[in-house]
Amino acid sequence: MSKNTGSCKFRKVDVDQFDEDKYQDELTEEQAEQGPNVSEVTNLLSSGKNTDALTHLLNNPPMVTKNITMKDKATQLAVKVLSSFRSSEIDQAIQLLDFKQIDMLMKYIYYGFECQTEGSSAMLLTWHEKVFAVGGLGSIVRVLTDRKRV
Amino acid sequence: MTEVHNFGTEAVTCHAWNKNRNELALSSNSTEVKVYKKTGGCWQEYETMTEHGQRVTSIDWAPNSNRIVTCGSDRNAYVWNYNDGKWTPILVILRINRSATVVKWSPKENKFAVGSGARLISVCYFEEENNWWVSKHIKKPIRSTVTCLDWHPNNAMLACGSTDFKTRIFSGFVKDVEAKPSGAPWWDGKMSFGTLLAEYSNGGGGWVHDVSFSPSGDKLAWVGHNSSISVVNAATGQQMAVLKTNFLPFVSCTWLNESSILGVGYDCCPLLFSYSDQGQLIFTCNLDVPKEQSIGTQSAMQRFRDLDRMAAISDDTKNVKTLHQNTITQVIVYSGTKEDCSKFSTSGVDGNLIIWDFKSLEKSVAGLRI
């Protein structure tokens, strides 16, 4: 009889690694994607073009890359961009976005919750409420189901 | 008129109708399949099929040959024949090592397909000389559990959706039991069994929950767990339309005519979508228009019962506004065909089975929009 050791190491053994039919994530053509350009976004922010900074951010997400630090940087940048909006400007900014950008914004909001900084959560909740009003439950479901995270 | 039939408090996981729609087979999230007959407006249970050892996952009733096929998590499928007032089962050896998830008769009813968690589809047909259902496997390149299936009207092509986020079309042509089908889109001459004819992804994640061929067989629609609905049109060069909706995900879908698709699922109401000849897929309307309920006086008994059950007094928290009180698990065309559906039926986790009058609903909703 085997002894119950309480060990849970075996749970981390990847039993599927020798399975040749194992599921693999799709690789898309845009392998060389850079994610958002930090200096450009900061420039846009400092010259007061908040909406342009937001659009740049949403159009260049680091989706395909497996580089976690790059993704974290993008999220931090997103939090910075979102917090530079005044709450009265949010509605206007959201109106300019198409449904793809809305989905992307929802993703940034959720990953923003994950790596929170002082006061960021309250600001993100304001954004969340307004994006939810446009994107509905569908946009939240897509944050949860998408294999490619930002 | 919309009819609501209740079958207890357990979820109705799957249901199937006979040809005349006066008999019904359903499973209430258990190992049993119950068969009902309609007698004077209510459903009378007349047989319980108890052959399955684990949960029944799918039922299909062949309208013309009057046979039922069921499959379950016990990795088995049974074909049920009605002889001398009794349903008698025949075991079908599927040769799978994971749960069977879905079963569908082909349009000509000479074979059926079973999807499974073993990452394959078993296509089964009857071999006369051995008096035996034989199964053939379609394996490649399915990478995950097969969740849904649909046969093309030409009886040879098979669409499947899977938890690897892809929708695929295979050849399910078995030369032992049928003649060569006539040409159809996707069908490029190579028709040997198991050939992959097409593979689609709508980008991004989301398990595919259901697939459906349009009545003509030119279009394929599918719904996924990312709340999306997609249509591919073979007549216009495989053009794909994807609509990422604002709703909760859809679990089941069907065409109601050549340009309308119905999606049902976690939103508890049937939602209608339309696909135009230009390849535009748009949301049309919600077919479950809630009636304004007047909040009447509440009896003391009701009030305390609500307080006890829900820890709330207010009446509006008691019920979901929709007719189904929980997720819808399946939608089937009830009267008419996919080409021109007049009624459809939905089963739900709330234990209800609802028959919706599509024609009159469509009219009333059109009236609302004007």
UniProtKB/TrEMBL annotation, chain A:
Predominant subcellular localization, coarse grouping: cytoplasm
Alphabetized InterPro entries for the sequence: ARPC5, ARPC5_sf
Keywords assigned: Cytoplasm, Cytoskeleton
Signal sequence region: none
Alphabetical GO biological process terms: Arp2/3 complex-mediated actin nucleation; regulation of actin filament polymerization
Pfam families for this protein: P16-Arc
A GO cellular component entry from the record: Arp2/3 protein complex
Highest taxon of the lineage: Eukaryota
Location(s), subcellular: Cytoplasm, Cytoskeleton
Function, in words: Functions as component of the Arp2/3 complex which is involved in regulation of actin polymerization and together with an activating nucleation-promoting factor (NPF) mediates the formation of branched actin networks. Arp2/3 complex plays a critical role in the control of cell morphogenesis via the modulation of cell polarity development. Functions as a component of the Arp2/3 complex which is involved in regulation of actin polymerization and together with an activating nucleation-promoting factor (NPF) mediates the formation of branched actin networks.
Family: Belongs to the ARPC5 family.
Protein name: Actin-related protein 2/3 complex subunit 5
Automatic annotation (TrEMBL), chain B:
UniProt cross-references to InterPro entries, sorted A to Z: ARPC1, WD40/YVTN_repeat-like_dom_sf, WD40_repeat_dom_sf, WD40_rpt
Stated name of the protein: Actin-related protein 2/3 complex subunit
WD repeats: 49-86
Phylogenetic placement of the source organism: Eukaryota, Metazoa, Spiralia, Lophotrochozoa, Mollusca
Keywords recorded for this protein, A-Z: Actin-binding, Cytoplasm, Cytoskeleton, Repeat, WD repeat
Family under the similarity heading: Belongs to the WD repeat ARPC1 family.
UniProt keyword annotation of Cytoplasm present: yes
Highest rank taxon of the organism: Eukaryota
Any one GO molecular function term: actin filament binding
Organism: Acanthosepion pharaonis
Endpoints of the signal sequence: none
PANTHER family per the UniProt record, alphabetical: ACTIN-RELATED PROTEIN 2/3 COMPLEX SUBUNIT 1, ACTIN-RELATED PROTEIN 2_3 COMPLEX SUBUNIT
Function of the molecule: Functions as component of the Arp2/3 complex which is involved in regulation of actin polymerization and together with an activating nucleation-promoting factor (NPF) mediates the formation of branched actin networks.
Cellular localisation: Cytoplasm, Cytoskeleton
Entry's Gene Ontology cellular component terms: Arp2/3 protein complex
One GO BP: Arp2/3 complex-mediated actin nucleation
